[in-house]
Design a protein that fits this description.
about 325 residues; mainly alpha; Rhopdopsin 7-helix transmembrane proteins; two-stranded antiparallel sheet
Length: about 325
């Protein structure tokens, strides 16, 4: 999709900033974008609806007002926000072939995508701490994870995400852009935007690496440490039934951590190490990271968490019985 104007025609004459960038879909499959938009739309519906149902169930069920489920509601809210931050441009590209995104809108979208990713990582760490206290120190569980502390941990996740990611658009605004205006994704992603700059991006690279280490890196290390202590405690339980019961309470969280971190690590390695002539590997991994995580998380917790499954069953049974009652009244 060639731009309507040349790069120099759309650059600001003083700072060499483009008026807009051009987003891309999936390389080589441009003619099929309208068909690809169908599964993407389904995924957005599942992500938004599934996480909304999780939030509704936790809010309306007093027995779920426990630390584990409060953290889950934070995770669901973050997943919804992440989906909402990519939805406008992704559907514009695939449904309407509208590729333009204004420069400052692109920076804003990039900030929100990275901020919500950082928040999700912090919430996964908080959930690992919750499982650590519940299994390793169950007698002090309610004393350690009070509602005020849980709210404080949520606020720290938000503030850390905002504080760490706020410099990203600022560092990009100082750069001149004269190489190209065509991005590799259907949304604005920091490494992708950064590579279009024609000035020195050394500071951006160093800060980006520091971000990965200080947020995702530290979080993942503490999550692994939490599960090392959990495993040590579980192996000390005498009965096999007790060990399985303790581990079963961690299955949903472990799957969620893998769903989040495996694509994230792969994406980071591809951007920093991989040298590809085709942008397809970058596009594929970034799409998996941003689209699948909000879709799979509510499905995992709905299937693997007995309490949520029971409430869902009651809700559907009540609706079904209500529908039959209305039919019978006629």
């Amino acid at each position: 999709f060639p731009p309507r104007f040349s790069v120099m025609q759309i650059l600001n004459g003083t700072r060499y900033q483009p008026i807009y960038f051009l987003l891309s879909g999936i390389p080589g499959l441009e003619s099929m974008h309208i068909w690809i938009s169908i599964p993407l739309s389904v995924m957005y519906v599942i992500a938004l609806l599934g996480n909304s149902i999780i939030l509704y169930i936790i809010q309306k069920t007093p027995s779920l007002h426990e630390p584990q489920y409060i953290f889950l509601s934070m995770l669901a809210g973050t997943d919804m926000a992440m989906s909402a931050s990519t939805l406008p441009t992704v559907l514009n590209v695939f449904l309407f072939n509208h590729l333009e995104i204004e420069f400052h809108s692109c920076l804003a979208q990039m900030f929100f995508i990275h901020t919500f990713s950082s928040m999700e990582s912090a919430i996964l760490l908080a959930m690992a701490f919750d499982r650590f206290v519940a299994i390793c120190n169950p007698l002090h569980y309610t004393m350690v994870l009070t509602h005020s502390r849980i709210i404080g941990m949520g606020l720290v996740a938000v503030m850390r995400g905002v504080a760490l990611m706020a410099p990203l658009p600022i560092l990009l605004k100082r750069l001149p852009f004269c190489k190209s205006i065509i991005l590799s994704h259907s949304f604005c992603f920091h490494p992708d935007v950064m590579k279009l700059a024609c000035g020195s991006i050394r500071v951006n690279i160093i800060y980006g690496l520091a971000l990965v280490l200080c947020s995702f890196g530290i979080d993942s290390v503490f999550i692994v440490l939490s599960y090392a202590f959990i495993l040590k405690t579980v192996l000390g339980i005498a009965s096999q039934e007790g060990r399985l019961k303790a581990l079963n309470t961690c299955v949903s969280h472990i799957l969620t951590v893998l769903i989040f971190y495996v694509p994230l690590i792969a994406l980071a390695l591809i951007h920093r190490i991989g040298k590809y002539h085709s942008p397809l590997p970058h596009v594929t991994m970034s799409n998996i990271f941003l689209f699948l995580t909000p879709v799979l998380n509510p499905l995992v917790y709905s299937m693997k968490t007995k309490q949520i499954r029971a409430v869902l069953f009651r809700l559907f049974k009540t609706r079904e019985d209500g529908g039959k009652g209305k039919i019978g009244s006629h």
